[in-house]
Structures are given as structure tokens and as C-alpha cells.
């Protein structure tokens, strides 16, 4: 009799467990799992020609999006017009995007748009812009001074030193140029600023300084055509820049982690979208000279391995 009672209790317990399992399968998973942070949408506004140069930064952005619960939308300008970028930014706000990361095409136009504009929080790369919530990048003053000091080591005071202002509307490269110019003039040089660069100009020059990677790639290609090429110095890294460092077509580069720049920019944009504290981030700069590309200290900067 006792054995039959035990069997009945076992059947009741098994029945209850089966019923609980059925009920749990019927309840939506969203009700069983604690709600996480809201997934946010971030637009990344690139300039024309930036896609290849910022490839490593894009890897950092995508990793940050995966880690922090964000969706990214990469948008590239068809022309280097600040007004077009501002209009594109306005459209992102109208579409309900939560935040934007912008590489400014025209800092003055972007500042004018951001003045008192609360529709969309913006984080900038390369150039600091008034009205943006945060900036991620190296110290422009330090970078310009570092390039000037390196150029002075390889060029006589009487030599012709060109400073290429390839993107006059971009405040970051412009500040780097002004810092380099001041350092060279303080050392007794008479650097010449140019907004266009030709092979003929480079034939007469002893050194040329570029202040972001797009113009650096172009200057190295032009210098390679010269019978007596100048020494080329610049800021920023790309696969083309690294290859030119390996062959000696570029004498030295001021480099920083583009992967970190992309990751930090998206993380700050996510914070802004979620109304969490936001802060600018200054990235450390390392000077890499020709012949040093395979040094262990430079491997992560020049040949990043993505997680």
C-alpha cells in the first residue's frame, strides 16, 4: 500500500514538473531574461576617399558596436563639400538616429550646424569641433611639433621645407600644420605652406610634411616620381603608408591606434545616445621611421590584429 502511495506522489511531482516546463516554453524569452540597455543606432559620416584610410578605425567601431549593443550605418560623401555633410547629418536626425560619429569635411560648417542644435549628439574624429559632445584623436600640437623636430634632423636649415595644407577646412590637420610651422620657424627654418602639391614642387624641396594619411599617401606617390625625391614626413597610418615606410618612400610617420580611435568614438557616441557621461579621449602618438616597421614596439600600430 505504501509503495502505491509513493508511486502516486512521484507521478504528481513528474506531472507538475512537466507542466512547469510547458508553461516556461510558452512564456516569451524577453520576459524571462532581464532587459539590457536599449540598442542604439549610430551613423558614421565619412568624407570622400576616407573608406580605405579609415579601414582599421572601422574595425574598432564594429567591435565597439558588438560589445555595447549598437547598430552602425556607414555613410560616405560623394563630394568634399561641408554643406553636403551637414545636410546628411540633418537627415540622420530626421530619421531618428540616436547619435553620429563624424570625420568633418568642413569644421566651420559643422560648427555652425551644431551651435545650439540638440537634435543629435555628435562625436568627431580627426578634428575638434565646437558643439560636438566629444572628440577622439591625438594632440594636434604634439603631433605637429614631433613631425617638425624629425624633419629638422634630416634637413639643413637652408633647405626647402613644404607644409601641405591639403584640407584647409579641417581644423585638426590645420592645427598640426601650424604647430609644425611654429616649431620649424623657431629652429631657424622658413617653411612654405602650399594647398596644392606637384612633382615639380617636390623636385625643388628637401622635405615635405603632410598632416593626415590621405595627403601623405599622395605625397609619397608624387615623391617617388622625382629624380631627387625629398624626404616625406606625415601623420596617420594606412596599408599604403606602411608599404611606403618599408620601401623608404616615407621617412617617418607620427602614428596612433586607429582601432582605438574607432572603438572609443563609437563608445562615446553610445554613451551620448543613452544619456550617460561622455568625454573626449586623447590618443598617444608614436614616431615610426623608415626601417622600423617590423620593430616589436610598432607591430600593433602598423599591423593590427583584430579580435
Automatic annotation (TrEMBL):
Q: Know the name of this protein?
A: Monosaccharide ABC transporter substrate-binding protein (CUT2 family)
Superkingdom of this protein's organism = Bacteria
**Similarity comment:** Belongs to the bacterial solute-binding protein 2 family.
What's one Pfam family the UniProt record gives for this protein?
Peripla_BP_4
Domain (Periplasmic binding protein): give its ranges: 45-274
What are the GO MF terms of this UniProt record? carbohydrate binding
Which InterPro entries does the annotation name?
Bact_Solute-Bind_Prot2, Peripla_BP_I, SBP_2_dom
- Gene Ontology cellular-component terms listed: outer membrane-bounded periplasmic space
Show the SUPFAM superfamilies listed in the entry. Periplasmic binding protein-like I
**What is the annotated localization of this protein?**
Cell envelope
